[in-house]
# Entry
Amino acid sequence: MDFRGVILLLLVFVGYPWVSVPSAAVRTSGEDYVRPPPRATLNLPSRRTKQSSDPQQVHISLAGGKHMRITWVTSSEASPSVVDYGKLRGKYTSTSMGESTSYTFLFYKSGKIHNVVIGPLEDDTVYYYRCGGEGPEFHLKTPPAQFPITFTVAGDLGQTGWTSSTLDHMDHCDYDIHLLPGDLSYADYQQHLWDSFGDLIQPLASARPWMVTEGNHEKELLPLFSSEFRSFNARWKMPFEESGSPSNLFYSFNVAGAHIVMLGSYTDYDQYSDQHNWLKADLAEVDRTKTPWLLVLFHVPWYNSNRAHQGEGDDMRASLEPLLYAAGTDLILTGHVHAYERTERVAGGRLDPCGALHITIGDGGNREGLATRYLDPQPDWSAFREASFGHGELKIVNGTHSLWTWHRNDDDEPVRSDQVWITSLASSGCLSRRPDKLEFGKISVGP
# Structure
């Protein structure tokens, strides 16, 4: 093992100091709002107990075709991977069996991770369910089949006091699905933090589907060990197989009238890669008469006027933006930069009425603090930017209009700080200007 590997091993067992927290509130030039400093990491010891069959870290996700995946962890290896469910509290009319897995990470061994797909389920309906044949009852609500539908969005969550505020504010939204563009637990090799993160989000994630993609803090790559994305893939199985993807790191799904694509910023994306080939085929199958909205999420932003992480998305943008532009992508949501920014419609580095609207929302509550330094002057494509913790809410009202709102965490109150109506490209005439779908790879955008 090389020197870097030794250092990483030491970090796993003894911990390491995170980015320091400012001792005073931060004010940026020209803004009246004074941002409070980041809050400390929560003390959330794992509730895993030896031989316990109680379901822990329960979260749900869409599994395609009116099905839902229920995921939970038990300490007991004997606990069965079974879910009983029904539409009446305490009365279960259906049972589904599933599968289980576990993983090791150096000297850590996870609990038994259960994955059970239930359904078919009725749209816009509350179901009650029980995991493992015993224990507490949970409930979930399936998404609607038609508009309107509401998404919450927050990236770079972590496990701090601000994470708690963000989750609390989301809990007061009447939403259908949560979208998370990477950086979930901030475990960073310390595997018990995956367990505490699962417990932290369980009240929300067990009731509404969470659809996630990976960020850099999910990579957890150790030299000389095959560990890349091991924890993420074991704990957060997404419907990649249902969408024809070869990898859990990128996939797509349909809900109501939206086609949503989750891409991987940290897996190959050049024109010869599996991800590029899969995306090209996936977009070619999108029927904008049935799904007039096309949304895309990944971790590293392509359009970013913050000084943090400048240029990191350039290579991915060069490879994949032509495909997304040709497909008429309406909205691209990213994280990574710990601040909020919304662009105008843009493509090829310049304003374009048929380009995507980009939103960076890597401000869910992470322990690393806010990215407060912006480029000056502000680019013409940057419409609104602010370094504050918060979450977004996207309400797709119908096939032509949606309402985007960003809620800043002002102390412990959600304050609506940015709001804009978005018109779909499917209704704007832009799609008629696109080349044939089979020619996606030949289009070029920008200068």
Q: What stands out?
A: The chain has six helices and 24 strands. Confidence is low (pLDDT under 50) at residues 1-32, 436-447. Residues 48 and 418 are 41 Å apart (CA to CA). The longest strand covers residues 413-423.
